[in-house]
Amino acid sequence: MSATNWPSIISELAELEIITDAVQLSKLSLDYYHFSPILSKKLNNKRANLVVRPVNEVEVLKIAQTCVKYQVPLTVRGAGTGNYGQCIPLEGGVVLDTTKMNQIRSLEPGLACVEAGVKMAAFDKKAREIGWELRMAPSTYRTATIGGFIGGGSAGMGSITYGQLRDRGNLQAVRVVTLEDEPRILELRGDDVQKVNHAYGTNGIITELEIPLAPAYPWVELIVIFDQFMRAARFGQALGDSDGIVKKLITIQAWPIPSYLTALEDYLPQGKHAALLMISQYDLEPFQNLVKEYGGEITYQKTATEATKGSSLLEFTWNHTTLHARSIDPNLTYLQTFYFTLERVEQMYDYFGEEAMIHLEFLRVGGKAIPAGLQLIRFTTEERLNEIIRYHEEQGAGIANPHTYILEDGGRKVIDPEQLAFKEKVDPYGLMNPGKMRAWLERAVSV
Amino acid sequence: MSATNWPSIISELAELEIITDAVQLSKLSLDYYHFSPILSKKLNNKRANLVVRPVNEVEVLKIAQTCVKYQVPLTVRGAGTGNYGQCIPLEGGVVLDTTKMNQIRSLEPGLACVEAGVKMAAFDKKAREIGWELRMAPSTYRTATIGGFIGGGSAGMGSITYGQLRDRGNLQAVRVVTLEDEPRILELRGDDVQKVNHAYGTNGIITELEIPLAPAYPWVELIVIFDQFMRAARFGQALGDSDGIVKKLITIQAWPIPSYLTALEDYLPQGKHAALLMISQYDLEPFQNLVKEYGGEITYQKTATEATKGSSLLEFTWNHTTLHARSIDPNLTYLQTFYFTLERVEQMYDYFGEEAMIHLEFLRVGGKAIPAGLQLIRFTTEERLNEIIRYHEEQGAGIANPHTYILEDGGRKVIDPEQLAFKEKVDPYGLMNPGKMRAWLERAVSV
Ligand SMILES: Cc1cc2nc3c(=O)[nH]c(=O)nc-3n(C[C@H](O)[C@H](O)[C@H](O)COP(=O)(O)OP(=O)(O)OC[C@H]3O[C@@H](n4cnc5c(N)ncnc54)[C@H](O)[C@@H]3O)c2cc1C
Ligand SMILES: Cc1cc2nc3c(=O)[nH]c(=O)nc-3n(C[C@H](O)[C@H](O)[C@H](O)COP(=O)(O)OP(=O)(O)OC[C@H]3O[C@@H](n4cnc5c(N)ncnc54)[C@H](O)[C@@H]3O)c2cc1C
């Protein structure tokens, strides 16, 4: 393989914003892979040769052409907040940073069309002006891009109503730039969007997305505390199953997890298990009745207006819980688990004790509210971590392993023939985010 | 028991609108009890002595005082569209018709306060002007009152998202006039509303209700046809479980039920099973993908604007299906069934054939979309009807028997101690809709 002619590439891209400064390159090559001690070791020295920041689709096409011409890897990056090294360029090459592609193309009741680099919170602010908002968003909502959420995320606040990103209807269409000999722009609509949905940017550069919106409610943020963990968990399930109460977030944290949320310490007394919630203001009264039924105590309540001023409870939930915990105890890592039932939650709670502190996020899967876990794990060794994973799986839980950067080894488990076929078509040279898609790696070996 | 002094009562109520004309009395004493051949025989000769039509709560208080003073039965009537003789005065007396109490007291995003006699469609028209609508409504939406829906109904369009009326949050507060020696106005809020929710007007006259609203969508009405019934049923379940597709109505009708909907015959070909649906206009594309997956064919599609002009598909669903079928074949009656699972639906479909033609309405129960049945039954004898009911129950289905006017013998099955206690308090003389609450009848015997 001949050495890449970087000066030539740089001069071809001269009209675009290019970053070559080593500090910047390092920053723009990495993400939140360090939540995993396993990935930390494997990925911390990976660097792009070059970062390019296109401002529109024409520039993206130009970058695609150049990468094909010089046969260099191209890795797309949104805000770089992924947790599994999704946007880390394993083989170096070009990182395409989408954050300057942040135009809202259209915004109407129910539907919007945005460029991939639009940040979710910024978008929501605009959408709420017309009474709508994103159906779902991760706890990195303030910084993460919509394209990155589709490329590497899965669920978040709102998922207790609308399910996951992969659910039919939650992404209506995408425009994708290919890495063929003559890069093209393709539009995928309806079920076809699954070809690139959660593909870690391995098969096309998403430039624009059509996303459905949800009616915007005045969300009230609340903390409810409980004496017993399973009481809190059952409350979460009951709230998830309460069809008459409109909600956006149901987070349950077993003590001592609340002790890591120091900014909220006034509302999280020693030894109590906590629910962090977002509830429609119109449903507060029935909500309070539910709290009463489960013996909870409301310690924090911010109206929608108050909540948007300061920082939102959202930023103490989902993987932000892990972030806060790790800032106090860097030996902590986490798992992602579909428990499916509360019985299994209880079993794991009893079995692991504080080695796997239970953090639940309720979300809809196939029409049903289920408890998913982002447990905090006291990390000792990789062997023990794998043992913990194995035990969960043996007991019938589903683990979406966050300690691998390989697409199929995380949540999906099996090869997606549709995504592979699409990659064969749009990225015939395998330049996009190389090393992440097992299907491609194995095909390369067998070809 | 001394004869009632009706002239005296009439003169006490002289300032109110009073109806004594026999034809009117007969009309205002009955409801749609005739859907049941069993109830038909039992109830067709029941008549009120007098109908009063109050225009406000002060007049309601006056009526309550008068009924207590003269110890005459009082039965509340909304639009009289109930199916089980709920508002038929078994012991005569006064019928209080609420239809002139039709003021909207307040209408704000998310919440409204209405008088009990407000008609649902009329309310929705107003609510939609500010972007909201009723969370749920029966297929008698155009004529039925909100108070009557609470007093005697259970679910309808919208229930696939918000569940049933009884679910916490779907009724926020009520004002109730009592029949004590000194009739009072009570306000019940939160869980306390369950005291009068679906109580057939046996324990208080609801004068005002606070109800939560849903964001109004532009609903598209569609008919999808299928070759196989179970395909249609599975499609219904899949749609119910599709968290990314916003919907309001999922009705599935096994052939030959569609043959009874003659006004829709152009869209309902011979031998095909049909789905009648209301889907958010914003989600039409993913919806079409789902139809494709299940091999359905869309034969009818009206946009929200077109649909509001003519008559709505709603009026061919829920118990309107029964209405249309009975207008062609008066020997038909129906059942109300919680199948809970599609396996049970299939079993009953195979077992009964056209004796129990399956009509499914999907609705959320405890957070999960389930198939409920309003099967059309080819009536032969009461014994056979009871046999059919028994068979369903033996196989694990839940039947809400629509062939009884007794509150507890319908859907509830057990005595509600809370409603009984409330009746003891607010209707100590047992004047309200006498003969309908088993708990009261049995208590009366044992006292
Ligand atoms: C504290 C914390 C909390 C988090 N909480 C959540 C959460 O609640 N839910 C959740 O799902 N995730 C969560 N995450 C993960 C991550 O923040 C989100 O998934 C986020 O949406 C990713 O967006 P991003 O712009 O940072 O994407 P990036 O990390 O930049 O990219 C993610 C993946 O998408 C690909 N990609 C990016 N843009 C494009 C494009 N235009 N075309 C094709 N591929 C593209 C990248 O190559 C990469 O593989 C969390 C992470 C952290 C650190
Ligand atoms: C063709 C057809 C279709 C139907 N579809 C549905 C359906 O989809 N879903 C459904 O749930 N029902 C359905 N029904 C039943 C009925 O139409 C509804 O429940 C409707 O909401 C009843 O409203 P109403 O004003 O007619 O009440 P009424 O029949 O007048 O009264 C119903 C009960 O409530 C009591 N009541 C009425 N007003 C008050 C008050 N102010 N205070 C206290 N008690 C009161 C009455 O005493 C009576 O017991 C259907 C009926 C028919 C004939």
TrEMBL record, chains A, B:
<dbReference type="Pfam" id="PF01565">
    <property type="entry name" value="FAD_binding_4"/>
</dbReference>
<dbReference type="GO" id="GO:0004458">
    <property type="term" value="F:D-lactate dehydrogenase (cytochrome) activity"/>
</dbReference>
<dbReference type="GO" id="GO:0071949">
    <property type="term" value="F:FAD binding"/>
</dbReference>
<protein>
    <submittedName>
        <fullName>FAD linked oxidase domain protein</fullName>
    </submittedName>
</protein>
<dbReference type="InterPro" id="IPR006094">
    <property type="entry name" value="Oxid_FAD_bind_N"/>
</dbReference>
<feature type="domain" description="FAD-binding PCMH-type">
    <location>
        <begin position="43"/>
        <end position="216"/>
    </location>
</feature>
<dbReference type="InterPro" id="IPR016169">
    <property type="entry name" value="FAD-bd_PCMH_sub2"/>
</dbReference>
<dbReference type="InterPro" id="IPR036318">
    <property type="entry name" value="FAD-bd_PCMH-like_sf"/>
</dbReference>
<dbReference type="GO" id="GO:1903457">
    <property type="term" value="P:lactate catabolic process"/>
</dbReference>
<dbReference type="InterPro" id="IPR016166">
    <property type="entry name" value="FAD-bd_PCMH"/>
</dbReference>
<dbReference type="GO" id="GO:0008720">
    <property type="term" value="F:D-lactate dehydrogenase (NAD+) activity"/>
</dbReference>
